[in-house]
Amino acid sequence: EDQVTQSPEALRLQEGESSSLNCSYTVSGLRGLFWYRQDPGKGPEFLFTLYSAGEEKEKERLKATLTKKESFLHITAPKPEDSATYLCAVQDLLTSGSRLTFGEGTQLTVNP
Amino acid sequence: DSGVTQTPKHLITATGQRVTLRCSPRSGDLSVYWYQQSLDQGLQFLIQYYNGEERAKGNILERFSAQQFPDLHSELNLSSLELGDSALYFCASSSSTGELFFGEGSRLTVL
Hints:
The complex is a heterodimer. By secondary structure, chain A is mostly beta strands. Chain A is about 0% helix and about 60% strand. In chain A, a hairpin with a 2-residue loop joins strand 6 (about 55-60) and strand 7. Chain A starts with a strand and ends with a strand. In chain B, a hairpin with a 5-residue loop joins strand 7 and strand 8. Chain B is an all-beta fold. Chain B has strands at about 5, 10-15, 20-25, 30-35, 45-50, 55, 65-70, 75-80, 85-95, 100, 105-110. Chain B contains no helices and 11 strands. Classes of the chains: A mainly beta, B mainly beta.
């Protein structure tokens, strides 16, 4: 069974204080690893897809990286508007359909 | 705006009742997914349809059912509702590259 574990559960940063979120995963065969951002009461918003170890993707202050066992979401010089819950999900090559299995998320708060 | 439309946004009902949630996928997407998100759990996969056919089933209760219609919209039917069914229900559709795009959700409150 696919498993996704995210840490920390919650993270408080000061504006401009860079940090990283972790996503550890277990899958039979990785088709893709996905990062989403979710604001309270809203649907998850797609950020990145990573397909193979060593791959990196960037978008504004966010950078996602992937190894064979985990992924990191690096946040550089965050701003208050980056406050949200960040979700990691995996798609398994050997699972029927193309569902995503999600972690519990990291709730990020950036204080001004 | 993801392009996925869900109605209703909010729904309050009583235990034992039945409700129907509706989802319209992004233009061109053939797959529809339903997820449940409650306070004490993350996003839980319920069911996937592809071009009208059930493709995959997750932790969906027998009291719940879904279907996808020829125009590709989907409905999730929840019956014999219990307090524990109170949650956000999300619909998503997928692109050819596998990313899921989520709607804004339907918040169900069972009293």
